[in-house]
Amino acid sequence: MKGRNRESQAPAVFELYDIPYSGSDAFTMGLTLDKTMAKKILQYHGLKTPNFVTVSSVDELSPKKFKLRFPIIVKPSQEGTSKGLSRESFCTNFTQLKKRVEWLLENYKQPALIEEFIVGYEFTIPVIGNNPGKVLPIVQTAISGKLDLGEDFYTQARVDSTDIKYICPAEIDKELEEKINALVLDSYKVLGCKDLSRIDIRVDYNNDPYFLECNPLPNLGKIDVFPIVATAMGITYEELLCRILDASLKRHNLI
């Protein structure tokens, strides 16, 4: 499977042959993999996401016309698992930005997503169920033992690194928890997610949460966040998987 609609191909085939399946439909899979389109949808609905532009050529970048504030982070617009993210993705001036965009366009052959970087804290939040979904305990990301990440962030090199620790439930107050849950649930609904998703959030020093991305096809393996979320809920990992399956079966009127 390849292309920006690669995650849509399996559900599209299932729909064609009327085969029930768990997870979001082909449209949502394609929409969320294209980070630019997902952010445009959220902005239309008034949901907070970092200010951004997307470019397909460095010729589209001009110091005089560039309106975003530094620091900036540059990402592939159609990838997951932190692909294309390294310390060089974090830019504090236009020269660094142009160099990183050139590298990304050359290596990933897709538009570059340029976002204002949210200095502060990072969270990932699973959601399961339908109409409405249920937000599960918030997971906070710690890097090198620090919860206040400042200008640090999750990179591709850290995917299997011991630098990353997940704290669940997150060490935050009730007010921030409610803000995050509201943004996450609204995003889940607006993007048309079904059965399960995991949504990534950054929170600035004013305690304002910002949507980063939605993964409707999250890693359910024991190395990811779902086992520690189950523990925080007081249930087993297997019970949590069964709840996801139950949500799908009910949606298809199979139970």
Give an overview in words:
- This protein is an alpha+beta fold and 255 residues long.
- The protein folds into two domains: 51-117, 2-Layer Sandwich (Dna Ligase, domain 1), CATH 3.30.1490.20; 118-251, ATP-grasp fold, B domain (D-amino Acid Aminotransferase, Chain A, domain 1, 2-Layer Sandwich), CATH 3.30.470.20.
- Helix content is 32%, strand content 20%.
- The protein contains seven helices and ten strands.
- It has helices at residues 9-16, 26-33, 35-44, 94-108, 174-190, 226-233, 237-251, and strands spanning 52-55, 72-76, 90-91, 112-116, 121-129, 134-135, 139-143, 164-167, 195-203, 209-215.
- The strands form two sheets. Strands 5, 6, 7, 8, 9 and 10 form a six-stranded antiparallel beta sheet that branches.
- The radius of gyration is 18 Å and the shape is globular.
- The model has no long low-confidence stretch (mean pLDDT 95).
